[in-house]
Design brief:
The structure is a homodimer of 626-residue chains. Chain A has 17 helices and 30 strands. By secondary structure, chain A is an alpha/beta fold. The first copy, chain A, has five domains: 89 residues, Roll (Ubiquitin-like (UB roll)), CATH 3.10.20.30; 74 residues, Ubiquitin-like (UB roll) (Roll), CATH 3.10.20; 147 residues, Nucleotidyltransferase, domain 5, CATH 3.30.420.480; 163 residues, ATPase, nucleotide binding domain (Nucleotidyltransferase, domain 5, 2-Layer Sandwich), CATH 3.30.420; 89 residues, no CATH class. In chain A, helix 6 crosses helix 7 and helix 12 crosses helix 16. At the A-B interface, helix 4, helix 5 and strand 17 of A face helix 4, helix 5 and strand 17 of B.
């Protein structure tokens, strides 16, 4: 059977092969956070003609079914099929979008005062030819040459000796070494014949609980070749880190979780490599940042003790691993550097975030908050760093929200509601003619703040049926129609709204409790760095209006995007910054908020918009009174 | 079908399984230097009753065939078989013989002034239990505890983190670490729960071109648990290192050679372990000494450049390898330390030999000679060390000699011929009632010297047919009957004698040429250390009479046995001595004899007994004149 895509591409697909699998084999990667089990509903495709057999329709609305949408993972062709892949189903490879991002990243790198000096180095050596009078062995010749160039300790893992004789002789005693610094030694990670002018790439990865983001970076220029992001397919075992630890330990499924995330990274990386025709051997190293549990699951470390008092990870700083040990699709000998973690609930993603903000070098008192599935908060400056964590849930990344999606092309990232006409204006990620396909975190924050000011919801988040014709009875609950299109309407349901309010309450409670613990108030804060997968755009005023962020002068806020992958980028390109990251992890202390009664009080007070204590939000109060 | 051994043991053997294979499966290891190809003739067994199908009879004499001998590797049972395994066919596990050897080795270790401090250490740690106030990670807890014990740099390979959480918790935070010192760091090679009082063994291996010797050593006491020796089954690809290098490179068979020697070591080690019920997990490390080519082949390093001018090995000092990388039957993470080599033709076996003699610490001028398939010579003292090599061939190890065998039980190690009656008296390795089954190197030297003095051979080594009734026409040439027994007669043939004379000529030429190169004469030498696989016994006077050794005062000679495995033993038990070995390899220089015309002249002069220049042997001259 044949699948004909509207792009013109034709793909063979056997009767017992799912459309998802057939597309994958043809190099077309769909989002599939449940791993092809038919439960996440992310791999929708539109069948335009041709009979298919669909074994599951979960997560498809009646309207979608009527239009011909099917789940690619559970659908098999019965004859030749003409079909279309909606953008929201594609595993994103960002293409041109990255040019701007690349410039920003390079500017950030330069702003740290560091030159490009990648994690792994390449050294080209022209060895003197051996003679009867200079007949030392190949390995000693290599060492002598390196010593003459001022290199001290050199570690040569045994495996590299086995082909050494052939390699040094292949291109007339010229060789290229690839090395990494470990335990006060340069360690060889690759020896190749000749002068390798081939491209050198590094991979920076943010392993979020919900989302995995992969950057492929040119190590010589610092340019971002491309970005791919996908849901962390561990989602199929549970939304949060605790459920996943339980799954890993009680069901003895550590390997399964490990394979899930490794295969997400592989899929994303292969998609980028293929799109840009980059050879697998051009990749020299990986830097991975994730929270402590994600880092453990990625490295295959037992996470059990993380969730039981006294909450002990196997490691906070990780010995260098190699791609081959972890099942990454790359040369098995290239190193994988995992960002050091601070404690069981403040991980390498936060260390990477601090590195990206350079908070650890600031004179003034700063706050950093990373809003992901967990919200982690760091307060401090060049003298001290204190961190804490609270659980926000995956809603801002689109998970658990009916029309939620990650901040990629087609996502509604900005919502304005005219307070008189109640007309809704939206901004979509992508070109001018991009059709909206879902709502990302920044869009949700906007929408709820605007709905609140327009009195479409009350301070508890309940939809007011009489307030607007856009409020309607949905399949299970009331919902608000943000966009009405040809495909399906994009809505926020009452459970969606409750979800988001709980998340924002946890974040605000985290802020205020940690500040109290260290003896400061919001007024002492000079700068608030906000990180998260909200895309390019987060309307701070709306986040304040929602009561997620404290009401401070607008110029004190700085939205930084995904600082976990940014930190990984910095670390990949600078050995100094790698040392700084390790220094940050060492310096940072951790405060356990869950044992604080103050946190629970703050959380409950935060379950209103903007807050039970409206006096903490004088600006919002004024707006409400209008 | 069933094989019944005269020991009473019964072994099942299918019709398509060779007797060799069936015995191996039952834990009975035969010598099989050709690897079961039916070409070495070493795996003879005696079939007493029952029909068998024998596919090859090469290397069996008509007499043996008549008596019922078959090659186990090429023989298959056609019905139940009653059979006997001659001692000479057994892979030797020495059993009680080692008690004396063990004492000698320990005495040698103590004489170096070194205490037992094995290559790999075990450290038992009782970690403080984690609490909410002391919640550092498992790995950091381990490091902190080691630092508090004064350990500096600790390298933890990534793979050891994966089970760390389980291991530390298994026996209430008590763990045993096994470590080895590499590149100024202690590197973890094993982490096990609890306080491991289990035995700790190390394996010392001498990889000779012809013979492989394996010692299993108790690392806590230094006692030798047992010894096994076997032919290096690379023999099937050629007798000397050059032929093997050619085979490895021109036929692309490096892997085959590598597997051959690794499997010899495995077979020997398994035989010892089974005989003494020692668990594989009790083995903590290997130390291997061999010549440069043998070390390369064992480690899987390309040996091609060793044989081509300017004769360059891949490495002379080898990064630590692990058992798993080399296919050794042991825990894959335990380290394998290969003795450093000096040059392409002076290897780790010679460095081990110098370590065993402690020549590198002597004030007086000494010579060390290791007589194996190659003869290597070291001259020097605590101030300087010069080495050279000459090719002796494998005859002293029994290879290429009709009734030759290694110096193990049943070997004739001493021969005396009454000059009047021409009666032959022999001494056999083993108990009083041990029957002779072959002739080892020391027996050959004795026999030829005695035959020369008794005028049974002339100075060129030609047998004098009329001299004795023991001289007879053999299958292909004249031969001298040393022992006439029930099984077969033990003889030295004329080609055997020529072989031995060529070997002794090469050794003597090596001595005298190297001495000349460094500007000394035999009279300057205070001590001559002789090493080789001659067994316990080598009659120096006979070796002088043969013209293999220079005629010096008897007390200047010291016979040391197999110093390669002795050096490996020392290195296994003392980290100081490991450093000394590395120091010896660094200090020793190498002189290439093959380019010296003097060497060829000396060699040709040495093709007489004792030497063309009889005046260099005044004592022998006097004896001859008697």
């Amino acid at each position: 059977m044949e699948l004909s895509l509207t792009s013109g591409k034709k793909i063979a697909c056997a009767a017992d092969t799912s459309i998802l699998e057939a597309l994958k084999k043809a190099g077309i990667y769909l989002t599939s956070s449940c791993g092809g089990k038919g439960t996440c509903g992310k791999c929708k495709v539109l069948v335009k003609s041709g009979n298919v057999i669909s074994k599951s329709r979960i997560k498809l609305s009646q309207d979608e079914i009527d239009k011909g949408y099917v789940l690619a993972c559970k659908t098999f062709p019965a004859e030749d099929v003409i079909m279309d892949i909606p953008k929201e189903s594609m595993l994103v490879v960002e293409g041109q979008v990255v040019t701007g991002k690349s410039k920003d990243l390079l500017a950030l790198l330069h702003s740290t005062g560091t030159a490009i000096d990648p994690l792994t180095g390449r050294i080209v050596l022209a060895l003197p030819l051996p003679t009867l009078d200079d007949n030392i062995s190949d390995l000693e010749r290599l060492r002598r040459e390196l010593m003459s160039k001022g290199m001290g300790c050199l570690r040569v893992p045994f495996r590299f000796t086995q082909d050494l004789a052939k390699i040094v002789r292949k291109e007339n005693w010229q060789v290229t070494l690839c090395t990494i610094h470990t335990e006060d030694c340069e360690e060889i990670i690759r020896i190749t014949p000749g002068h390798k002018k081939t491209p050198q790439y590094g991979v920076a990865v943010d392993i979020g609980t919900t989302t995995v983001v992969v950057f492929l970076i040119d190590l010589t220029t610092g340019h971002l070749a491309d970005v791919a992001s996908t849901y962390n397919s561990q989602i199929r075992f549970g939304d949060d880190v605790i459920t996943r630890i339980v799954h890993a330990t009680e069901h003895n499924k550590l390997k399964e979780l490990n394979h899930a995330v490794v295969s997400d990274i592989n899929t994303a990386l292969v998609a980028i490599r293929k799109a840009h025709h980059i050879d697998v051997e051009s990749i020299d190293c990986f830097v991975v940042a994730g929270n402590t549990t994600m880092t453990h699951l990625f490295l295959g470390l037992d996470p059990e003790a993380i969730r039981e008092e006294p909450y002990i990870p196997t490691a906070n700083t990780f010995p260098l691993a190699f791609a081959g040990e972890l099942g990454l699709k790359a040369n098995p000998n290239i190193p994988v550097y995992a960002f050091p973690c601070v404690a069981s609930y403040v991980g390498g993603d936060i260390v990477a975030g601090v590195l990206a903000t350079q908070l650890h070098k600031k004179q003034e008192l700063c706050i950093f908050i990373d809003i992901g599935t967990n919200g982690e908060i760091v307060i401090g400056n060049s003298e001290w760093l204190v961190s804490a964590a609270c659980s926000a849930g995956p809603c801002f990344e689109g998970s658990g929200i009916k029309c939620g999606m990650r901040a990629t092309e087609g996502a509604i990232e900005n919502v304005t509601i005219n307070r008189e006409t109640l007309d809704v204006e939206i901004k979509i990620i992508g070109d001018n003619d991009t059709k909206p396909i879902g709502i990302c975190g920044s869009g949700m924050i906007d929408a709820i703040a605007e709905m609140f000011l327009a009195r479409i919801i009350d301070p508890k988040g309940k939809l007011q049926k009489e307030a607007s014709s856009r409020v309607r009875e949905g399949e299970d609950s009331l919902e608000f129609v943000i966009y009405s299109g040809e495909g399906r309407d994009l809505v926020l349901t009452e459970p969606d709204i409750e979800n988001i309010i709980r998340a924002k309450a946890a974040i605000y409670a985290g802020f205020s409790t940690l500040l109290k613990e260290v003896g400061f108030t919001f007024n002492d804060i000079q700068k608030v760095y906000i990180a998260g997968g909200f895309g390019k755009f987060l309307d701070i005023e709306k986040a304040v209006m929602l009561g997620m962020l404290p009401e401070l002068a607008k110029e004190k806020f700085q939205y930084m995007g995904n600082t976990s992958v940014t930190g990984a980028y910095l670390c990949l390109l600078s050995r100094n910054l790698r040392s700084e990251a390790e220094e940050i992890a060492r310096r940072m202390t951790y405060v356990e908020l869950s044992v604080s009664s103050s946190f629970m009080n703050e959380y409950i007070s935060g379950l209103f918009i903007p807050h039970t204590n409206i006096d903490a939000f004088p600006g919002v109060k004024k707006l409400m009174e209008k």
